[in-house]
């Protein structure tokens, strides 16, 4: 669960430190006060890129968001993304993201530096944000199958199916590619044969071009290299004042010194080493000078070879390794075309072999989905009755399709909201308020199988009237028994169920606007609920209603 949140210089938030309840947390405040900024800050620390960060002169230092998550679920410790950051005794996971004034970001998990994508992957495990427009997912048929699969808990079965489907798809792709090749088979064979012969005649080798270029430099500059080597040899060994002669003369002085003072014996030994190294260098330089070639025929041969290599690079790749890769692919393609009949039979055998296993897994998925659909129907109809749609009928309509990455099924949510109304596609008949209630019913149905411990609802109660507020609040309260919930709401009926109630508002200091957030308790909370009911001005009636709501919800 999200234990605490620290925010500094984020949009209109100068500095905030919030601590949350493990159950239902509510944020209230007037429209535009900045409630959604707190959700944006959480999105930011979980790896999302936002443009709402404070950059004006009022911001002292960098933008910083730090979220502390309590690791109570042992399953979280063994998640591949989180495991590297947890020691055996750790009870919390600290996600931190900082943005400097220069626009550079620094991210860390438990004080270990990470990149932004790692924060995002961690966020998917720790927290789930549901925005006020999430009900639009209900209008997308593609999302219905995923929702049903989450409820059926068919992850392992689905993973097994996908492995088989990917294998099956690769065989279909091979078959299609072979058929496409066969359309111009003879012409393609001739072209490939020409290309393969041309590259094989060249007999290219890795690193050959680099070696040829080095040899070309030596041959083209042989005369200059010989003259430079001769001058160096003269300085080292042939002139009267050569380095070799000077060292020989110096050795006599070194020997005299060491005889008078034995402590200089190691220095004498070093001197002898210098002499030996110089002699070795002179020998090596003479050998190099003698090895220099003035073979202009070889120079022309190298130039011809380099020209041939350059031509092949233009045709088949920018470097020899790419030409050799092209040759390997051309050989394989040529072999497939020449023996296309044999390859075709092999591919058909592979398809024939994988199909029964694929069909079996698809069938098992379909059975799980049918059972899940029946359970969803019962649960959602019950939830909708509680949400004052008493005659609702819900159905997950399944149809068999061709094999796809998701199985062999297509699923669409169907609903009837009134007596005598036929079941129709959800996307065709549902209104905004009804969509919010159906979404809430789905969340309630999926809550026990949702692996994420913290759920954030950003005004999911939009389009729900006040008369449904208490029912909706009770549903959210039930969800908070299984998951930590953070909720932005405008309805006092929902806010009254909060275990921890925060108020967000704006303040102006020195001509600058800031968003601030306060924990409400006791009389402050009664006052906030009363003002939510009657507007900014608290009345005796609204105050009495606020106290009654808190009494009924058990929060007073």
- Rg: 39 Å
From the 3D coordinates, which CATH architecture of one domain would you assign?
A: 3-Layer(aba) Sandwich
Computed structural class: alpha/beta
Unreliable spans are: none
Count of DSSP H/I helices: 19
CATH superfamily caption of one domain: P-loop containing nucleotide triphosphate hydrolases
Widest sheet, order of strands: 2-1-4-5-6-7
Specify the helix fraction band.
Answer: 55-70%
Roughly what is the average pLDDT, rounded to an integer? 84
Output the CATH topology of one domain: Rossmann fold
Compact summary:
The chain is of the alpha/beta class.
Please tell me about this protein's structure.
This protein is α/β, with parallel strands linked by helices. Among the domains are: 1-132 and 450-520, P-loop containing nucleotide triphosphate hydrolases (Rossmann fold, 3-Layer(aba) Sandwich), CATH 3.40.50; 188-337, no CATH class. The protein contains 19 helices and 15 strands. It has helices at residues 35-45, 74-77, 116-126, 141-152, 155-183, 185-202, 208-220, 222-238, 243-260, 265-291, 296-316, 320-338, 340-386, 426-429, 432-446, 469-482, 492-495, 523-534, 540-553; strands at residues 2-10, 13-19, 24-28, 63-70, 92-99, 105-109, 112-114, 127-130, 393-404, 407-416, 424-425, 454-458, 484-488, 500-509, 512-520. Strands 2-1-4-5-6-7 form a 6-stranded antiparallel beta sheet, covered by helices on one side. A 6-stranded mixed beta sheet has the order 8-12-13-3-14-15. A 3-stranded antiparallel beta sheet has the order 9-10-11. Strand 6 (105-109) and strand 7 (112-114) form a beta hairpin. Helix 4 (141-152) crosses helix 13, helix 9 (243-260) runs antiparallel to helix 10 and helix 13 crosses helix 15. The longest helix has 47 residues, at 340-386. The chain is flat, with a radius of gyration of 39 Å. The protein starts with a strand and ends with a helix. The model has no long low-confidence stretch (mean pLDDT 84).
């Amino acid at each position: 669960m999200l234990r605490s949140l620290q925010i500094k210089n984020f949009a209109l938030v100068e500095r905030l430190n919030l601590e949350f309840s493990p159950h239902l947390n509510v944020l209230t405040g007037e429209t535009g006060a900045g409630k959604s900024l707190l959700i944006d800050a959480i999105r930011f620390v979980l790896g999302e890129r936002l443009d709402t960060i404070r950059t004006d002169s009022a911001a002292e230092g960098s933008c910083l968001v730090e979220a502390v998550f309590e690791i109570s679920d042992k399953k979280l410790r063994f998640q591949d993304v989180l495991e590297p950051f947890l020691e055996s005794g750790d009870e919390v996971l600290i996600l931190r993201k900082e943005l400097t004034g220069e626009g550079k970001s620094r991210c860390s998990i438990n004080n270990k530096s990470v990149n932004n994508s790692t924060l995002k992957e961690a966020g998917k495990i720790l927290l789930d944000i549901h925005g006020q427009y999430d009900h639009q997912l209900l209008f997308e048929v593609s999302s219905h199958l995923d929702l049903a699969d989450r409820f059926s808990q068919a992850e392992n079965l689905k993973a097994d199916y996908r492995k088989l489907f990917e294998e099956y798809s690769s065989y279909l792709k091979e078959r299609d590619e072979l058929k496409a090749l066969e359309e111009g088979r003879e012409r393609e064979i001739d072209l490939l044969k020409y290309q393969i012969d041309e590259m094989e005649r060249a007999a290219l080798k890795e690193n050959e071009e680099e070696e040829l270029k080095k040899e070309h430099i030596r041959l083209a500059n042989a005369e200059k290299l010989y003259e430079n080597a001769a001058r160096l040899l003269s300085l080292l060994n042939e002139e009267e004042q050569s380095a070799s002669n000077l060292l020989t003369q110096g050795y006599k002085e070194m020997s005299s010194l060491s005889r008078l003072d034995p402590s200089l014996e190691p220095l004498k030994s070093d001197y002898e080493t210098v002499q030996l190294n110089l002699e070795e260098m002179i020998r090596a330089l003479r050998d190099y000078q003698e090895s220099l070639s003035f073979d202009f025929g070889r120079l022309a041969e190298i130039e011809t070879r380099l020209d041939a290599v350059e031509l092949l690079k233009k045709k088949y790749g920018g470097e020899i390794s790419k030409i050799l890769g092209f040759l390997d692919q051309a050989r394989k393609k040529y072999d497939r075309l020449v023996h296309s009949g044999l390859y075709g039979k092999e591919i058909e055998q592979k398809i024939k072999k994988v199909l029964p296993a694929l069909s079996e897994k698809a069938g098992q998925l379909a059975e799980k989905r049918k059972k899940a659909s029946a359970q969803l129907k019962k649960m959602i109809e019950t939830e909708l009755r509680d949400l004052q749609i008493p005659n609702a009928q819900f159905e997950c309509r399944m149809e068999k399709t061709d094999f796809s990455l998701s199985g062999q099924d297509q699923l669409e949510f169907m609903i009837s909201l009134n007596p005598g109304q036929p079941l129709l596609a959800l996307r065709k008949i549902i209104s905004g308020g009804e969509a919010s209630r159906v979404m809430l019913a789905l969340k309630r149905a999926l809550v026990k199988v949702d692996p994420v411990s913290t759920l954030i609802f950003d005004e999911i109660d939009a389009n729900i009237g006040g008369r449904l507020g208490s029912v909706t609040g009770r549903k959210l309260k039930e969800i908070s028994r299984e998951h930590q919930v953070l909720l932005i709401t405008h309805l006092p009926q929902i806010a009254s169920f909060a275990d921890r109630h925060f108020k967000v508002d704006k303040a102006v200091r020195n001509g600058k606007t800031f968003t601030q957030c306060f924990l409400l308790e006791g009389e402050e909370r009664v006052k906030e609920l009363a003002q939510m009911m009657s507007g900014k001005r608290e009345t005796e009636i609204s105050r009495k209603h606020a106290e009654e709501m808190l009494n009924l919800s058990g929060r007073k």
